[in-house]
Amino acid sequence: MSADDQSAPREPSVDEHSVVLHDRGAAIEQSDAFENPGLPPHRPRQTDLHPHKERRAERQVVGWFLASMLGSVLAIVAYIAVPIELGNMASVRANNLFLGLAIALGLLGIGIGAMHWARQLMSSHEVVEERHLTRGSEPSRARAVEIFQLGDEESGFSRRSLIRNTLIGAIALVPLPAVVLFRDLAPQQDAVEAIAHTMWKPGTRLALDPSGAPIKATDVTMGSAFHVIPEDLTEIGHNEGYLDQKALAAVLLVRLPPEKLHEEPGREGWSYDGIVAYSKICTHVGCPVALYEQQTHHLLCPCHQSTFDVSRHARVVFGPAKRPLPQLPITVDADGYLVAQRDFTEPIGASFFERLHHIDPEHVPLTAAETETRA
Ligand code: FES
């Protein structure tokens, strides 16, 4: 021991400290916080004591699973038998009511049946599970298998084949309404076919949106932009697809000095005295192109700023769009009104793979290098 150790005061040990406290009457008795109360004595249920009550509980469980199966089937029947009619709110309410009730029965039947099975028929013996490492030792894993087998034996999952099979049937049927409902979200007709053609046909007059007043070539002043619809669109009611047809056929009409138009071979006859018509639906993702800058002859889509040059067949000069706006070939009729020569020669709107299958044989593609690379 060094000289320093000998001279330093020694700290009392814990035991010595306790003795000192005890002598002063200030010690605290240490004891267990609480005693393990153990499990209450097991109380058998009515179904454990009386076989006829056990059989009745079994029938009730089967009944709930059968009710679930019935609910799932009824959901499909309700969806077909009570359809939603366009514009009829009463049909929407009736459809939702019956569909909701039937699906609720399908789900509740499984839930109540499973609860009833667990509470009345499965083993109710309390067990204590000791905590252990996440991955048990081989003996404990073997014990787990044993417990599973015991659970199967006590729950009667394998033995009570009627309950098990009705449960499997109920679980198998419960997703069916979702399958039918989600399938019906798809368009009823070929989606591409639905947007491949518009109302424009030979001789259809170009009319002002929304009044439907036909437009004479002499009405179109230099530098102005007209929002145009087919004249016969106004004969379609709002519940008969007016907006759908308008979204396909909407056109922008612009007049330029004829010498400013750079028309490609094959498209010279698609304009009339400097008046050109282009689809209003952006070829990026379908916003309405609505802004016209008369000095530059540019049409601007407000959504993502795609810019189209009207003087060059609405080719893309800026932005994410990848192809020009489709051009509507126009001319005038005997009364001087602007009319369509035919429908668009290519599908309007956003580009998509199947679009290429619907390009008309009379379509005249643009030849400029920029357009070729973007098309
Ligand atoms: S929709 Fe027109 S630029 Fe995106």
UniProtKB/TrEMBL annotation:
Record's keyword annotation contains Repeat: no
Region (Disordered): 1-54
UniProt membrane topology term: Multi-pass membrane protein
InterPro entries: QcrA_N, Rieske_2Fe-2S, Rieske_2Fe-2S_sf, Rieske_Fe-S_prot, Rieske_Fe-S_prot_C
Cofactor(s) of this protein: [2Fe-2S] cluster
Subcellular location: Cell membrane
Domain Rieske: 248-339
Transmembrane segments: 61-82, 97-118
GO terms for cellular component: plasma membrane
Residue ranges, compositional bias (Basic and acidic residues): 12-26, 45-54
Assigned keywords, A-Z: 2Fe-2S, Cell membrane, Disulfide bond, Electron transport, Iron, Iron-sulfur, Membrane, Metal-binding, Oxidoreductase, Respiratory chain, Transmembrane, Transmembrane helix, Transport
GO molecular function: 2 iron, 2 sulfur cluster binding; metal ion binding; monooxygenase activity; oxidoreductase activity, acting on paired donors, with incorporation or reduction of molecular oxygen
PANTHER family hit by this protein: CYTOCHROME B-C1 COMPLEX SUBUNIT RIESKE, MITOCHONDRIAL
Family: Belongs to the Rieske iron-sulfur protein family.
Role played: Iron-sulfur subunit of the cytochrome bc1 complex, an essential component of the respiratory electron transport chain required for ATP synthesis. The bc1 complex catalyzes the oxidation of menaquinol and the reduction of cytochrome c in the respiratory chain. The bc1 complex operates through a Q-cycle mechanism that couples electron transfer to generation of the proton gradient that drives ATP synthesis.
Protein name (database record): Cytochrome bc1 complex Rieske iron-sulfur subunit
Biological source species: Agrococcus baldri
Lineage: Bacteria, Bacillati, Actinomycetota, Actinomycetes, Micrococcales
